[in-house]
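Minutes, methods subgroup
Present: GH (chair), OT, SY

1. OT presented the first of two proteins processed in the latest run. Sequence and C-alpha coordinates recorded below as shown on screen.
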Amino acid sequence: MTPKDNFMNSNSTSSLTVRVARKIFEAVDICTFDLISADGTPLPSFSAGSHIDVHLPNGLTRQYSLCNDPAETHRYLIAVLKDPGTRGGSKAMHELVTEGDSLRISAPKNHFALAHEAKHSLLLAGGIGITPILCMAERLSVADADFELHYCARSRDRMAFHNRIRRSIFSPKTAFHFDDGDVAQKLQLDALLGTPQLGTHLYVCGPKGFMDTILANARACGWPEAQLHYEFFAAELVKSDADGSFDVKLASSGEVVHVQKDKTVVQALADAGVEIQTSCEQGVCGTCLTRVLEGEPEHRDMYLTPEEQAANDQFLPCCSRAKSPLLVLDL
Protein backbone atom coordinates (compact mmCIF):
# COMPACT_ATOMS: atom_id res chain seq x y z
CA MET A 1 0.00 0.00 0.00
CA THR A 2 1.50 3.29 -1.04
CA PRO A 3 1.58 6.50 1.03
CA LYS A 4 -1.63 8.52 0.88
CA ASP A 5 -0.16 11.90 -0.01
CA ASN A 6 -3.19 13.27 -1.83
CA PHE A 7 -6.05 13.51 0.61
CA MET A 8 -9.53 12.91 -0.77
CA ASN A 9 -7.95 12.12 -4.14
CA SER A 10 -10.34 9.25 -4.69
CA ASN A 11 -13.41 11.48 -4.48
CA SER A 12 -13.36 12.11 -8.19
CA THR A 13 -16.69 13.00 -9.74
CA SER A 14 -15.69 11.70 -13.18
CA SER A 15 -17.64 8.70 -14.36
CA LEU A 16 -17.85 6.54 -17.46
CA THR A 17 -20.64 4.54 -19.02
CA VAL A 18 -19.66 1.07 -20.11
CA ARG A 19 -21.47 -1.91 -21.58
CA VAL A 20 -21.13 -5.50 -20.38
CA ALA A 21 -19.82 -7.17 -23.51
CA ARG A 22 -19.38 -10.59 -21.92
CA LYS A 23 -20.23 -12.26 -18.64
CA ILE A 24 -18.49 -15.58 -18.06
CA PHE A 25 -18.59 -18.05 -15.19
CA GLU A 26 -14.86 -18.29 -14.64
CA ALA A 27 -14.81 -20.66 -11.63
CA VAL A 28 -17.09 -21.75 -8.81
CA ASP A 29 -18.91 -18.61 -7.58
CA ILE A 30 -16.71 -16.34 -9.73
CA CYS A 31 -17.92 -14.38 -12.76
CA THR A 32 -15.83 -12.23 -15.05
CA PHE A 33 -17.26 -9.14 -16.74
CA ASP A 34 -15.81 -7.68 -19.92
CA LEU A 35 -16.62 -3.96 -19.89
CA ILE A 36 -16.30 -1.86 -23.05
CA SER A 37 -16.95 1.81 -23.69
CA ALA A 38 -20.60 2.54 -24.44
CA ASP A 39 -19.68 4.92 -27.27
CA GLY A 40 -16.84 2.87 -28.72
CA THR A 41 -14.07 5.26 -27.70
CA PRO A 42 -10.91 3.99 -25.96
CA LEU A 43 -11.15 3.68 -22.20
CA PRO A 44 -8.80 5.66 -19.92
CA SER A 45 -5.46 3.95 -19.42
CA PHE A 46 -4.65 2.28 -16.11
CA SER A 47 -1.67 0.89 -14.26
CA ALA A 48 -1.26 -2.51 -12.65
CA GLY A 49 -3.06 -2.70 -9.30
CA SER A 50 -5.82 -0.29 -10.33
CA HIS A 51 -9.50 -0.67 -9.48
CA ILE A 52 -12.75 0.93 -10.58
CA ASP A 53 -15.85 1.88 -8.64
CA VAL A 54 -18.89 0.14 -10.11
CA HIS A 55 -22.33 1.64 -9.49
CA LEU A 56 -24.68 -1.33 -9.18
CA PRO A 57 -28.35 -1.63 -10.18
CA ASN A 58 -29.39 -1.88 -6.51
CA GLY A 59 -27.83 1.50 -5.67
CA LEU A 60 -24.63 0.19 -4.07
CA THR A 61 -21.12 1.09 -5.17
CA ARG A 62 -18.33 -1.46 -5.00
CA GLN A 63 -14.65 -1.56 -5.98
CA TYR A 64 -13.32 -4.21 -8.33
CA SER A 65 -9.71 -4.62 -9.44
CA LEU A 66 -8.85 -4.58 -13.14
CA CYS A 67 -7.30 -7.87 -14.16
CA ASN A 68 -6.60 -7.47 -17.87
CA ASP A 69 -3.35 -6.36 -19.47
CA PRO A 70 -2.78 -2.64 -18.68
CA ALA A 71 -1.80 -2.13 -22.33
CA GLU A 72 -5.41 -2.75 -23.39
CA THR A 73 -7.58 0.31 -23.95
CA HIS A 74 -10.62 -1.33 -25.52
CA ARG A 75 -11.90 -3.02 -22.34
CA TYR A 76 -11.75 -3.40 -18.58
CA LEU A 77 -11.93 -6.92 -17.17
CA ILE A 78 -13.13 -7.52 -13.62
CA ALA A 79 -13.86 -10.71 -11.70
CA VAL A 80 -16.41 -10.92 -8.90
CA LEU A 81 -16.69 -13.60 -6.23
CA LYS A 82 -20.22 -14.22 -4.99
CA ASP A 83 -19.53 -13.96 -1.28
CA PRO A 84 -21.92 -15.87 1.01
CA GLY A 85 -21.52 -13.00 3.47
CA THR A 86 -22.32 -10.40 0.81
CA ARG A 87 -23.82 -7.08 1.82
CA GLY A 88 -25.48 -6.93 -1.58
CA GLY A 89 -22.66 -6.01 -3.94
CA SER A 90 -21.46 -9.35 -5.28
CA LYS A 91 -25.02 -10.71 -5.33
CA ALA A 92 -26.09 -7.80 -7.51
CA MET A 93 -23.22 -8.37 -9.92
CA HIS A 94 -24.01 -12.06 -10.22
CA GLU A 95 -27.80 -11.89 -10.30
CA LEU A 96 -28.76 -8.46 -11.66
CA VAL A 97 -26.03 -7.62 -14.19
CA THR A 98 -26.24 -9.37 -17.56
CA GLU A 99 -24.58 -9.12 -20.95
CA GLY A 100 -25.62 -5.98 -22.82
CA ASP A 101 -26.35 -3.99 -19.66
CA SER A 102 -24.95 -0.51 -19.20
CA LEU A 103 -23.08 0.35 -16.01
CA ARG A 104 -21.70 3.56 -14.62
CA ILE A 105 -18.13 3.27 -13.36
CA SER A 106 -15.37 5.56 -12.16
CA ALA A 107 -12.13 6.15 -13.96
CA PRO A 108 -9.41 3.77 -12.73
CA LYS A 109 -7.73 4.55 -9.40
CA ASN A 110 -4.63 2.96 -7.97
CA HIS A 111 -3.88 2.52 -4.26
CA PHE A 112 -1.91 -0.69 -4.87
CA ALA A 113 0.76 0.31 -7.34
CA LEU A 114 3.92 -1.54 -8.22
CA ALA A 115 7.20 -0.25 -6.82
CA HIS A 116 9.14 0.08 -10.03
CA GLU A 117 12.44 0.36 -8.18
CA ALA A 118 12.06 -3.24 -6.92
CA LYS A 119 14.79 -5.67 -7.89
CA HIS A 120 12.47 -8.62 -7.30
CA SER A 121 8.69 -8.77 -6.80
CA LEU A 122 7.03 -11.52 -4.77
CA LEU A 123 3.34 -11.74 -5.69
CA LEU A 124 1.03 -13.69 -3.35
CA ALA A 125 -2.65 -14.13 -4.20
CA GLY A 126 -5.36 -15.89 -2.25
CA GLY A 127 -8.61 -16.73 -4.04
CA ILE A 128 -10.24 -13.72 -5.70
CA GLY A 129 -7.19 -11.70 -4.64
CA ILE A 130 -5.64 -12.86 -7.92
CA THR A 131 -7.39 -9.98 -9.73
CA PRO A 132 -4.90 -7.14 -9.06
CA ILE A 133 -2.00 -9.58 -8.74
CA LEU A 134 -2.64 -11.00 -12.21
CA CYS A 135 -2.52 -7.53 -13.71
CA MET A 136 0.81 -6.97 -11.93
CA ALA A 137 2.19 -10.21 -13.33
CA GLU A 138 1.19 -9.13 -16.85
CA ARG A 139 2.94 -5.79 -16.45
CA LEU A 140 6.10 -7.19 -14.85
CA SER A 141 6.33 -9.84 -17.54
CA VAL A 142 6.13 -7.27 -20.34
CA ALA A 143 8.81 -5.22 -18.58
CA ASP A 144 11.00 -8.34 -18.30
CA ALA A 145 11.20 -7.72 -14.54
CA ASP A 146 12.25 -10.32 -11.99
CA PHE A 147 9.24 -11.72 -10.12
CA GLU A 148 7.46 -14.84 -8.94
CA LEU A 149 3.75 -15.47 -8.46
CA HIS A 150 2.21 -17.77 -5.86
CA TYR A 151 -1.53 -18.36 -6.27
CA CYS A 152 -3.45 -20.08 -3.47
CA ALA A 153 -7.01 -21.39 -3.64
CA ARG A 154 -9.25 -23.82 -1.81
CA SER A 155 -9.41 -26.12 -4.85
CA ARG A 156 -8.74 -26.15 -8.60
CA ASP A 157 -12.39 -25.51 -9.48
CA ARG A 158 -12.35 -22.32 -7.40
CA MET A 159 -9.24 -20.92 -9.05
CA ALA A 160 -10.09 -18.17 -11.52
CA PHE A 161 -7.77 -17.65 -14.52
CA HIS A 162 -5.94 -20.95 -14.00
CA ASN A 163 -5.87 -21.75 -17.71
CA ARG A 164 -4.96 -18.19 -18.67
CA ILE A 165 -1.98 -18.26 -16.33
CA ARG A 166 -0.88 -21.73 -17.47
CA ARG A 167 -0.83 -20.47 -21.08
CA SER A 168 0.92 -17.19 -20.24
CA ILE A 169 4.58 -16.36 -20.80
CA PHE A 170 5.00 -16.03 -17.04
CA SER A 171 3.72 -19.54 -16.33
CA PRO A 172 7.27 -20.73 -15.44
CA LYS A 173 7.36 -18.06 -12.73
CA THR A 174 4.05 -19.21 -11.22
CA ALA A 175 3.30 -21.77 -8.52
CA PHE A 176 -0.24 -22.95 -7.72
CA HIS A 177 -1.17 -24.02 -4.19
CA PHE A 178 -4.41 -25.81 -3.29
CA ASP A 179 -5.83 -26.31 0.19
CA ASP A 180 -7.11 -29.74 -0.84
CA GLY A 181 -3.80 -30.77 -2.44
CA ASP A 182 -0.90 -32.73 -1.01
CA VAL A 183 1.39 -31.15 1.55
CA ALA A 184 4.35 -30.82 -0.82
CA GLN A 185 2.58 -28.27 -3.04
CA LYS A 186 1.30 -26.02 -0.26
CA LEU A 187 2.64 -22.50 0.29
CA GLN A 188 5.84 -22.57 2.35
CA LEU A 189 5.89 -19.20 4.09
CA ASP A 190 9.09 -19.81 6.02
CA ALA A 191 11.01 -20.41 2.82
CA LEU A 192 9.44 -17.43 1.02
CA LEU A 193 9.57 -14.83 3.79
CA GLY A 194 12.20 -16.04 6.22
CA THR A 195 15.08 -13.93 4.89
CA PRO A 196 14.02 -10.46 3.70
CA GLN A 197 16.17 -9.20 0.86
CA LEU A 198 17.01 -5.59 0.09
CA GLY A 199 15.12 -4.64 -3.06
CA THR A 200 12.53 -7.44 -2.82
CA HIS A 201 8.97 -6.18 -2.54
CA LEU A 202 6.03 -8.28 -1.36
CA TYR A 203 2.51 -7.84 -2.78
CA VAL A 204 -0.40 -9.66 -1.20
CA CYS A 205 -4.14 -9.68 -1.84
CA GLY A 206 -6.91 -12.08 -0.86
CA PRO A 207 -9.25 -12.93 2.03
CA LYS A 208 -8.50 -11.11 5.28
CA GLY A 209 -7.30 -14.24 7.11
CA PHE A 210 -4.90 -15.07 4.30
CA MET A 211 -3.51 -11.54 4.23
CA ASP A 212 -3.25 -11.25 7.99
CA THR A 213 -1.19 -14.45 8.07
CA ILE A 214 1.14 -13.35 5.27
CA LEU A 215 1.72 -9.86 6.65
CA ALA A 216 2.16 -11.05 10.24
CA ASN A 217 4.78 -13.55 9.11
CA ALA A 218 6.57 -10.97 6.99
CA ARG A 219 6.71 -8.44 9.82
CA ALA A 220 7.87 -11.10 12.28
CA CYS A 221 10.70 -11.94 9.87
CA GLY A 222 11.76 -8.29 9.78
CA TRP A 223 10.42 -7.14 6.42
CA PRO A 224 10.53 -3.32 6.23
CA GLU A 225 7.06 -1.80 5.93
CA ALA A 226 8.13 0.03 2.77
CA GLN A 227 8.58 -3.34 1.06
CA LEU A 228 5.08 -4.57 1.98
CA HIS A 229 2.21 -3.78 -0.39
CA TYR A 230 -1.33 -5.00 0.14
CA GLU A 231 -4.97 -4.36 -0.63
CA PHE A 232 -7.89 -5.62 1.43
CA PHE A 233 -11.24 -6.34 -0.24
CA ALA A 234 -13.26 -6.27 2.97
CA ALA A 235 -12.87 -5.82 6.70
CA GLU A 236 -14.73 -6.85 9.79
CA LEU A 237 -16.52 -3.85 11.21
CA VAL A 238 -15.36 -3.37 14.79
CA LYS A 239 -17.88 -2.28 17.38
CA SER A 240 -17.40 -2.34 21.11
CA ASP A 241 -19.56 -1.77 24.15
CA ALA A 242 -16.75 0.50 25.29
CA ASP A 243 -17.27 2.84 22.33
CA GLY A 244 -17.96 6.34 23.54
CA SER A 245 -19.27 9.52 22.03
CA PHE A 246 -17.04 12.38 20.89
CA ASP A 247 -17.15 15.57 18.83
CA VAL A 248 -15.80 16.46 15.42
CA LYS A 249 -15.18 20.04 14.35
CA LEU A 250 -15.22 21.23 10.75
CA ALA A 251 -12.18 23.45 10.25
CA SER A 252 -13.76 25.49 7.45
CA SER A 253 -16.86 26.60 9.40
CA GLY A 254 -16.09 25.86 13.05
CA GLU A 255 -19.26 23.77 13.28
CA VAL A 256 -19.09 21.05 15.94
CA VAL A 257 -20.94 17.78 15.36
CA HIS A 258 -21.54 15.27 18.14
CA VAL A 259 -20.92 11.60 17.27
CA GLN A 260 -22.99 9.21 19.37
CA LYS A 261 -21.53 5.83 20.35
CA ASP A 262 -23.86 4.00 17.94
CA LYS A 263 -23.07 6.27 14.97
CA THR A 264 -20.11 6.53 12.64
CA VAL A 265 -18.54 9.89 11.90
CA VAL A 266 -19.92 9.69 8.37
CA GLN A 267 -23.43 9.06 9.69
CA ALA A 268 -23.24 11.86 12.25
CA LEU A 269 -22.00 14.32 9.65
CA ALA A 270 -24.73 13.25 7.21
CA ASP A 271 -27.36 13.87 9.92
CA ALA A 272 -25.91 17.37 10.24
CA GLY A 273 -26.14 17.95 6.49
CA VAL A 274 -22.46 17.34 5.73
CA GLU A 275 -21.95 14.64 3.11
CA ILE A 276 -18.69 12.74 2.74
CA GLN A 277 -18.36 10.50 -0.27
CA THR A 278 -18.09 6.85 0.75
CA SER A 279 -18.05 3.55 -1.04
CA CYS A 280 -17.06 0.42 0.89
CA GLU A 281 -18.07 1.77 4.33
CA GLN A 282 -15.61 -0.73 5.83
CA GLY A 283 -12.36 1.20 5.82
CA VAL A 284 -10.72 -0.64 2.94
CA CYS A 285 -11.13 1.55 -0.16
CA GLY A 286 -9.92 4.96 1.03
CA THR A 287 -12.73 6.91 -0.63
CA CYS A 288 -13.58 8.85 2.53
CA LEU A 289 -9.96 9.50 3.60
CA THR A 290 -9.98 12.75 5.60
CA ARG A 291 -7.20 14.88 7.07
CA VAL A 292 -7.15 15.24 10.87
CA LEU A 293 -5.85 18.64 12.02
CA GLU A 294 -6.20 18.14 15.79
CA GLY A 295 -7.04 15.27 18.10
CA GLU A 296 -6.20 11.56 18.11
CA PRO A 297 -8.15 9.13 15.93
CA GLU A 298 -8.87 5.54 16.89
CA HIS A 299 -8.00 3.76 13.66
CA ARG A 300 -10.14 0.80 12.66
CA ASP A 301 -9.42 0.70 8.94
CA MET A 302 -7.49 -1.74 6.77
CA TYR A 303 -6.39 0.94 4.31
CA LEU A 304 -3.65 2.94 6.04
CA THR A 305 -0.29 1.41 6.84
CA PRO A 306 0.76 1.15 10.51
CA GLU A 307 3.10 4.12 10.00
CA GLU A 308 0.33 6.20 8.45
CA GLN A 309 -2.01 5.34 11.31
CA ALA A 310 0.67 6.26 13.86
CA ALA A 311 1.03 9.71 12.29
CA ASN A 312 -2.61 10.42 13.26
CA ASP A 313 -2.98 13.08 10.58
CA GLN A 314 -5.67 11.24 8.59
CA PHE A 315 -8.37 8.69 9.20
CA LEU A 316 -11.30 6.86 7.61
CA PRO A 317 -14.53 8.33 9.07
CA CYS A 318 -16.66 5.47 7.77
CA CYS A 319 -15.28 3.16 10.46
CA SER A 320 -12.69 4.87 12.67
CA ARG A 321 -13.49 6.81 15.82
CA ALA A 322 -11.66 9.08 18.27
CA LYS A 323 -9.52 8.51 21.35
CA SER A 324 -9.61 12.23 22.17
CA PRO A 325 -12.83 14.13 23.02
CA LEU A 326 -12.52 16.21 19.84
CA LEU A 327 -11.24 15.73 16.30
CA VAL A 328 -10.74 18.76 14.09
CA LEU A 329 -11.22 17.70 10.49
CA ASP A 330 -10.08 19.38 7.30
CA LEU A 331 -13.64 19.71 6.02
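2. SY then presented the second protein from the same run.
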Amino acid sequence: MKVIKQSETLAEQAYTLLKKAIINGELQEKQPLPEESMSKELGISRTPLRDALNRLALEGLVIQKKGRPAIVAGFTREKSLEYMEIRSVLEIHSITQIMDRVDSLFIDQLKENLLEQRGAIDENDFQKFIELDSEFHILLASKNSNEEMKDLIERMNTGVNRAFLILSNTVPQSARSAYAEHVEILQALEQKEAAQAKEKMMVHLNNVEKRFLMYYSNIPVG
Protein backbone atom coordinates (compact mmCIF):
# COMPACT_ATOMS: atom_id res chain seq x y z
CA MET A 1 0.00 0.00 0.00
CA LYS A 2 1.02 3.61 -0.56
CA VAL A 3 2.16 5.91 2.23
CA ILE A 4 -0.40 8.50 3.37
CA LYS A 5 0.03 12.05 2.04
CA GLN A 6 -0.57 15.03 4.31
CA SER A 7 -2.66 17.10 1.86
CA GLU A 8 -5.99 15.44 2.74
CA THR A 9 -7.75 14.14 5.84
CA LEU A 10 -5.65 11.28 7.14
CA ALA A 11 -8.63 9.14 8.14
CA GLU A 12 -10.19 9.60 4.70
CA GLN A 13 -6.98 8.63 2.94
CA ALA A 14 -6.52 5.61 5.18
CA TYR A 15 -10.10 4.53 4.53
CA THR A 16 -9.65 4.83 0.75
CA LEU A 17 -6.34 2.98 0.69
CA LEU A 18 -7.54 0.15 2.93
CA LYS A 19 -10.77 -0.23 0.96
CA LYS A 20 -8.86 -0.44 -2.32
CA ALA A 21 -6.50 -3.00 -0.79
CA ILE A 22 -9.51 -5.11 0.22
CA ILE A 23 -11.12 -4.81 -3.21
CA ASN A 24 -7.89 -5.71 -5.00
CA GLY A 25 -7.29 -8.70 -2.72
CA GLU A 26 -4.11 -7.23 -1.26
CA LEU A 27 -5.80 -7.60 2.12
CA GLN A 28 -7.59 -10.94 2.21
CA GLU A 29 -10.48 -12.45 4.16
CA LYS A 30 -9.74 -12.94 7.88
CA GLN A 31 -6.41 -11.10 7.59
CA PRO A 32 -5.65 -9.23 10.85
CA LEU A 33 -5.20 -5.45 10.70
CA PRO A 34 -3.09 -4.67 13.80
CA GLU A 35 -3.07 -0.97 14.54
CA GLU A 36 0.64 -0.67 15.34
CA SER A 37 1.96 -2.23 12.14
CA MET A 38 -0.80 -0.78 9.93
CA SER A 39 -0.24 2.76 11.20
CA LYS A 40 3.50 2.43 10.58
CA GLU A 41 2.94 1.08 7.07
CA LEU A 42 0.60 3.95 6.22
CA GLY A 43 2.74 6.55 7.94
CA ILE A 44 0.01 7.86 10.24
CA SER A 45 -0.93 7.71 13.93
CA ARG A 46 -3.42 5.23 15.32
CA THR A 47 -6.24 7.77 15.71
CA PRO A 48 -6.99 8.32 11.98
CA LEU A 49 -6.41 4.62 11.37
CA ARG A 50 -9.06 3.78 13.97
CA ASP A 51 -11.46 6.22 12.30
CA ALA A 52 -10.86 4.50 8.97
CA LEU A 53 -11.36 1.04 10.47
CA ASN A 54 -14.58 2.17 12.15
CA ARG A 55 -15.92 3.38 8.81
CA LEU A 56 -14.95 0.13 7.10
CA ALA A 57 -16.65 -1.80 9.89
CA LEU A 58 -19.87 0.14 9.34
CA GLU A 59 -19.75 -0.89 5.68
CA GLY A 60 -19.24 -4.54 6.64
CA LEU A 61 -15.74 -4.75 5.21
CA VAL A 62 -13.92 -5.39 8.48
CA ILE A 63 -14.87 -6.97 11.79
CA GLN A 64 -13.87 -5.36 15.07
CA LYS A 65 -13.67 -7.18 18.40
CA LYS A 66 -12.68 -5.61 21.69
CA GLY A 67 -9.12 -6.37 22.67
CA ARG A 68 -8.24 -7.86 19.27
CA PRO A 69 -7.04 -6.45 15.94
CA ALA A 70 -9.71 -5.79 13.34
CA ILE A 71 -9.86 -8.42 10.60
CA VAL A 72 -11.01 -8.35 6.98
CA ALA A 73 -14.59 -9.65 6.94
CA GLY A 74 -15.92 -12.66 5.09
CA PHE A 75 -19.29 -14.20 4.28
CA THR A 76 -20.61 -17.73 4.46
CA ARG A 77 -22.30 -19.26 1.44
CA GLU A 78 -25.56 -19.66 3.36
CA LYS A 79 -25.64 -16.06 4.57
CA SER A 80 -24.90 -14.72 1.09
CA LEU A 81 -27.78 -16.73 -0.39
CA GLU A 82 -30.11 -15.41 2.30
CA TYR A 83 -29.27 -11.83 1.38
CA MET A 84 -29.73 -12.57 -2.32
CA GLU A 85 -33.15 -14.08 -1.64
CA ILE A 86 -34.21 -10.91 0.18
CA ARG A 87 -32.89 -8.71 -2.63
CA SER A 88 -34.73 -10.73 -5.25
CA VAL A 89 -38.06 -10.61 -3.44
CA LEU A 90 -37.80 -6.86 -2.91
CA GLU A 91 -36.37 -5.70 -6.22
CA ILE A 92 -38.37 -7.92 -8.56
CA HIS A 93 -41.58 -6.82 -6.86
CA SER A 94 -40.50 -3.18 -6.77
CA ILE A 95 -39.77 -2.89 -10.47
CA THR A 96 -43.35 -3.92 -11.25
CA GLN A 97 -44.59 -1.10 -9.04
CA ILE A 98 -42.72 1.80 -10.61
CA MET A 99 -43.79 1.66 -14.28
CA ASP A 100 -46.36 4.45 -13.93
CA ARG A 101 -43.67 6.69 -12.43
CA VAL A 102 -41.06 6.17 -15.14
CA ASP A 103 -40.59 9.37 -17.14
CA SER A 104 -37.98 10.77 -19.52
CA LEU A 105 -36.03 12.48 -16.73
CA PHE A 106 -35.77 9.20 -14.80
CA ILE A 107 -34.63 7.36 -17.95
CA ASP A 108 -31.95 10.00 -18.48
CA GLN A 109 -30.74 9.52 -14.89
CA LEU A 110 -30.43 5.78 -15.44
CA LYS A 111 -28.62 6.33 -18.75
CA GLU A 112 -26.15 8.67 -17.08
CA ASN A 113 -25.48 6.06 -14.39
CA LEU A 114 -24.89 3.39 -17.04
CA LEU A 115 -22.55 5.69 -18.94
CA GLU A 116 -20.50 6.08 -15.78
CA GLN A 117 -20.61 2.31 -15.18
CA ARG A 118 -19.14 1.72 -18.62
CA GLY A 119 -16.45 4.32 -17.98
CA ALA A 120 -15.51 2.70 -14.66
CA ILE A 121 -15.19 -0.69 -16.36
CA ASP A 122 -13.04 0.72 -19.15
CA GLU A 123 -10.79 2.33 -16.53
CA ASN A 124 -10.67 -0.88 -14.43
CA ASP A 125 -12.00 1.17 -11.51
CA PHE A 126 -14.05 -1.57 -9.87
CA GLN A 127 -14.50 0.28 -6.60
CA LYS A 128 -16.31 2.99 -8.57
CA PHE A 129 -18.28 0.38 -10.49
CA ILE A 130 -19.54 -1.17 -7.25
CA GLU A 131 -20.72 2.24 -6.09
CA LEU A 132 -22.48 2.89 -9.42
CA ASP A 133 -24.02 -0.61 -9.41
CA SER A 134 -25.52 0.09 -5.99
CA GLU A 135 -26.65 3.54 -7.14
CA PHE A 136 -28.43 2.00 -10.15
CA HIS A 137 -30.52 -0.31 -7.98
CA ILE A 138 -31.22 2.41 -5.42
CA LEU A 139 -32.27 4.76 -8.22
CA LEU A 140 -34.76 2.15 -9.49
CA ALA A 141 -36.20 1.79 -5.99
CA SER A 142 -36.46 5.56 -5.56
CA LYS A 143 -39.57 5.58 -7.77
CA ASN A 144 -41.40 3.21 -5.43
CA SER A 145 -44.05 4.97 -3.32
CA ASN A 146 -43.58 2.45 -0.50
CA GLU A 147 -41.04 4.18 1.73
CA GLU A 148 -40.31 1.07 3.80
CA MET A 149 -39.58 -1.02 0.72
CA LYS A 150 -37.43 1.75 -0.70
CA ASP A 151 -35.47 1.89 2.55
CA LEU A 152 -34.97 -1.88 2.66
CA ILE A 153 -33.70 -2.00 -0.92
CA GLU A 154 -31.31 0.85 -0.23
CA ARG A 155 -29.97 -0.91 2.87
CA MET A 156 -29.48 -4.15 0.96
CA ASN A 157 -27.53 -2.33 -1.74
CA THR A 158 -25.35 -0.18 0.51
CA GLY A 159 -24.58 -2.51 3.40
CA VAL A 160 -23.96 -6.21 3.52
CA ASN A 161 -24.63 -6.96 -0.12
CA ARG A 162 -22.16 -4.36 -1.35
CA ALA A 163 -19.62 -5.56 1.19
CA PHE A 164 -19.93 -9.08 -0.17
CA LEU A 165 -19.38 -7.87 -3.73
CA ILE A 166 -16.17 -6.24 -2.57
CA LEU A 167 -14.94 -9.11 -0.44
CA SER A 168 -15.73 -11.83 -2.95
CA ASN A 169 -13.61 -9.98 -5.52
CA THR A 170 -15.94 -11.22 -8.29
CA VAL A 171 -16.58 -7.77 -9.75
CA PRO A 172 -13.55 -7.56 -12.09
CA GLN A 173 -14.72 -10.77 -13.78
CA SER A 174 -18.44 -9.99 -13.85
CA ALA A 175 -18.71 -6.21 -14.27
CA ARG A 176 -19.28 -6.28 -18.03
CA SER A 177 -22.01 -8.91 -17.71
CA ALA A 178 -23.70 -6.96 -14.91
CA TYR A 179 -23.52 -3.78 -16.99
CA ALA A 180 -25.14 -5.51 -19.98
CA GLU A 181 -27.92 -6.82 -17.72
CA HIS A 182 -28.49 -3.30 -16.38
CA VAL A 183 -28.80 -2.02 -19.96
CA GLU A 184 -31.50 -4.60 -20.70
CA ILE A 185 -33.45 -3.54 -17.60
CA LEU A 186 -33.26 0.08 -18.72
CA GLN A 187 -34.44 -0.79 -22.23
CA ALA A 188 -37.50 -2.58 -20.87
CA LEU A 189 -38.33 0.39 -18.65
CA GLU A 190 -37.89 2.82 -21.54
CA GLN A 191 -40.29 0.76 -23.63
CA LYS A 192 -42.80 0.61 -20.75
CA GLU A 193 -42.70 -3.19 -20.86
CA ALA A 194 -43.50 -4.11 -17.25
CA ALA A 195 -43.37 -7.89 -17.74
CA GLN A 196 -40.07 -7.66 -19.58
CA ALA A 197 -38.58 -5.36 -16.95
CA LYS A 198 -39.55 -7.86 -14.27
CA GLU A 199 -38.03 -10.72 -16.27
CA LYS A 200 -34.78 -8.82 -16.90
CA MET A 201 -34.46 -7.96 -13.22
CA MET A 202 -35.08 -11.60 -12.31
CA VAL A 203 -32.41 -12.75 -14.79
CA HIS A 204 -29.95 -10.17 -13.48
CA LEU A 205 -30.36 -11.11 -9.82
CA ASN A 206 -30.24 -14.83 -10.66
CA ASN A 207 -26.95 -14.20 -12.45
CA VAL A 208 -25.61 -12.25 -9.48
CA GLU A 209 -26.41 -15.27 -7.32
CA LYS A 210 -24.65 -17.59 -9.79
CA ARG A 211 -21.57 -15.41 -9.62
CA PHE A 212 -21.66 -15.63 -5.84
CA LEU A 213 -21.83 -19.41 -6.05
CA MET A 214 -18.88 -19.50 -8.46
CA TYR A 215 -16.88 -17.60 -5.84
CA TYR A 216 -17.69 -20.18 -3.17
CA SER A 217 -16.90 -23.08 -5.51
CA ASN A 218 -13.34 -21.72 -5.76
CA ILE A 219 -12.78 -21.59 -1.98
CA PRO A 220 -10.63 -24.51 -0.77
CA VAL A 221 -12.30 -26.75 1.83
CA GLY A 222 -10.69 -26.91 5.26
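Chair's summary of item 2: The chain has two domains: 10-72, 77-217.
Next meeting: continue with the remaining queue.
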